[in-house]
Specification:
Number of helices: 5
Shape: globular
Largest sheet: none
Structural class: mainly alpha
Helix content: over 70%
Number of strands: 0
Distance between the termini: 41 Å
Low-confidence stretches: none
Length: about 150
């Protein structure tokens, strides 16, 4: 009986030359900014409206609400700066991956909802898994580049 070998095709664009526009450091930085944008915006909004940030924690039953709101603000502002600056990029990326994973199970419990609310929460739940994957990829690429 002949054995077959599974061949996996390379990802589209994996053969881009380093001189290609998509491989430029500016495009890479802008992609990371896009990944971090919601966290920077969320951290700033919470910082400028701390009472609402505390109210958000209370809405989701998180206690003690004030210290958790403060910790969330710090994380949402510091981790993206780590990612964008390249300073401990892997740590900032993993911190946001873990935070996003936890927040997804707290804020997007679609299994408890019905109708349109269920639909919206389910979409948000799985979209956040995409963010988690993106941050894990950023950490992995950072480790890989440091080992090279």
């Amino acid at each position: 009986m002949a054995r077959s070998t599974l061949k996996i095709a390379p990802l589209p664009g994996a053969d881009l030359a380093p001189a290609s526009g998509l491989a430029s450091p500016i495009v890479r930085w802008l992609a990371m900014l896009g990944l971090c944008a919601a966290y920077l915006q969320g951290g700033l909004v919470k910082a400028f409206d701390f009472a609402s940030a505390v109210g958000e924690m209370q809405h989701f039953g998180l206690q003690p609400a004030m210290p958790l709101a403060l910790a969330t603000i710090v994380l949402e502002l510091v981790a993206p700066v780590m990612i964008l600056s390249g300073r401990l990029r892997w740590l900032g990326a993993l911190a946001l991956a873990v935070f996003t994973l936890g927040a997804t199970f707290v804020a997007n419990r679609f299994w408890l909802a019905e109708g349109h609310d269920r639909f919206m929460l389910m979409n948000a739940f799985f979209e956040h898994w995409g963010l988690v994957g993106g941050f894990v990829l950023v950490a992995w690429l950072d480790w890989r580049e440091r080992d090279a």
